[in-house]
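[job 4471] stage=fold_predict status=RUNNING
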Amino acid sequence: MVISLTIGTLYRPSAAAPSPITSLSVDKRGKTIACGTMDSDILLLDATSGRPKRALKGHEAMVSSVTFAKGGKSILSASWDHTTRKWTVHGADKAASPIKHKAEVKLVVVDDSSSRGVSGARNGVIKLFSVDSLRCFRIIQAHRNDISGLAFGHDSSTLVTSSWDGECKLWDLTNYEMIQSLVRLKERIRSLALSPDDSRFYLGLHSGRILSIDFADECKVTKLKGHEDIVTSLALNPSGTMLASASWDRKIKIWSTSTGKEKAQRRLLTGASCIAWTPDGSAIFASDFSGAILNWPFERK
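[job 4471] inference complete, writing structure tokens
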């Protein structure tokens, strides 16, 4: 598979004052993109044409995170209105009451195999819940500051968290105890990605550095250098062979996970807010602060 030289604009808002895109999620069929926006809406787009399908309205502040669940039948969202909410592709899921938090909610992730979700807020608290009912069954004071990364382990028994407090932790989801503190840094961790086999984890930092860390030996660290500002988003392709990164420096990059070397980069008009792979790994979608969604395809050879 060869990375294409061209990057296209899938969607660009037509309004005079467009709302920046804060987060992206692609459904498992690769047909629909869910976008969180600064103006409190969730925008659903056709992943091929970029045509808007509908806007899901109900949050009262910025939607900071969105993710598809239940094979694409449901959407989970986190917002600065202090709630985590559940939606269908047609609107709010009225059977599931929102989860209320005591601070702005920054992230929500879902583990479809166990039907569990977790959301993390600016006060360092994470809440684990049932995706089906949105019932919260465990509250953990995981960090001292903003939650910046959440990732379920591949067997659903562990959870990795990261925070602006500079720490990355591993949690046991059978007893909800911390197994170990994986990393302690003197700068903010702004994004997190976990390899499909749990062998490595990746941290995007406030300074623009990316750290690739061996799970079995946290002293084995590879530094991926190339960004010059906050690394807002990290995403691994389905096979775990390539890492995509987005940054405030207006660059999106693709890295080889085996060598730690940069494979390609593209420069955007504004800072990049989020990046996501298609389910088959054939392309990445990236969002920027202008409200545009960009498509970077690969060529199969």
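[job 4471] summary: The chain has a mean pLDDT of 94.
[job 4471] exit 0
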